[in-house]
Amino acid sequence: YSMSSCGVCGYPDDDFTGNDGDLPNFNRWSLVQNDNGYLSIQSNLLNYNGNVASGSATSELNSRFEIGGDFDTIVEFFFFANSTTSAADSGVSLIARRASDDTLLAEIRRRHTTVHQYKSDGLDVSEAVLNTTDISGKFRITRVNGAVRVYYWDAAQVRWEWGLSTTGRLVANNDTSDVYFEIRFDKGDGETL
Q: Does the model's pTM come out above 0.90?
């Protein structure tokens, strides 16, 4: 996994470089939760292995940076494999939260329940899901003039979209609060991310 924000704009970014086995840079991230999971740098990517034979595990990193104004943040996942018969809700999420009170502003998630899906949620909308066969891909949260949108990368169409909309999914409107980002990994019933 890699995460980047508009580096040209002076926003923080992290490409998760380091030696294999290193922990994420705790000057940039705080480790909030790590249930039976293990986060480490592997081949200059953030790697998650839940180490769970049965049950579930969650690992969560929160950015130590707060961002105000417009932003464009992308997470790229390179491998996502799960049992096709499991009902466990496992996956990876990029979440934007209000810095003042931790309120969910936007979430885009690549998950597996009984099928593979992208899920989105936000302050002003209810959850929506789309089925997918992607095992690698990208997702994105943007805010322009207070409008917060989520997208996933459609490699076949070579574009950002939500469903067939190239404008993404509007999940929050008229919000200009400072935000921080969270990356969450969930694993259940023996799947491997």
A: no
Contacts of residue 192, defined as CB under 8 A and 6 or more positions apart, other chains included, come to 49, 50, 81, 82
d(C-alpha 145, C-alpha 176), whole Å: 8
Strand partners, 172: 148
Tokens of 35: 């249930």
Over residues 123-145, mean pLDDT: 90
Residue with tokens 């380091």: 18
Q: 61-70 as b/e, with b when 16 or more CB fall inside 10 Å?
A: bbbebebeee
Q: Which phi and psi (to 5°) does residue 94 adopt? A: -110, 125
* Whole-angstrom distance, CA of residue 141 vs CA of residue 127: 15
Average pLDDT rounded to a whole number, residues 145-173: 93
